Please model this.
Amino acid sequence: MSELTCKQTLREAAKRQRAALHNADADAKILQQLLQTDAFQSSDLVLCYVSVASEVDTRALLSYCFQSKKRVAVPRCERGGVMHFHEIGALSELAASPLSIPEPDLSCPVPACSEKTLCVVPGLLFDRSGFRIGYGGGYYDRFLAHFPGKTIGLCYEALLREALVREAFDRSVSTVITEQRILTVKSKETA
Model:
């Protein structure tokens, strides 16, 4: 079985499993753990996906950031596999993309990232080295290849694996947070 076929099989199984696991209590525990991290507390800007369907909820995190006056930017995927984060001040500034993903308008500013910027990364599965199986578009891997800040992946404990299939372009996150633990990975690395 090729790596691509293996990843696709893992994606499909993880989507079904995550839909069965998704619950507000686990999401609240993940959020509380994230808020306690130094990466979040010391961040000058939070880059964060807007959760849909059975993804770990980030809307509560975004609301917390708005209330705390912490700067927030959310992703907008563009042609050619490029993703830019645009700064917003409220969830009401988002509109559904053609794929029904909440995105900011192009007129929202694209902030500069620094070592103090935190990027909250989605994934279907994560492993103990911080690598992930995403949705297969490669948007985050391309973005993270040049991202200078800290990265945190959110997932349910049951979707944390010992190791996942990796390809040369895959990027790891520096921390994985589940409802049961905060797993710190030594450093950002490639496969």
Notes: The mean pLDDT is 91. The helical segments are 3-21, 24-36, 38-41, 59-67, 139-144. The CA atoms of residues 127 and 162 lie 5 Å apart. The first strand starts at residue 45 and ends at 48.
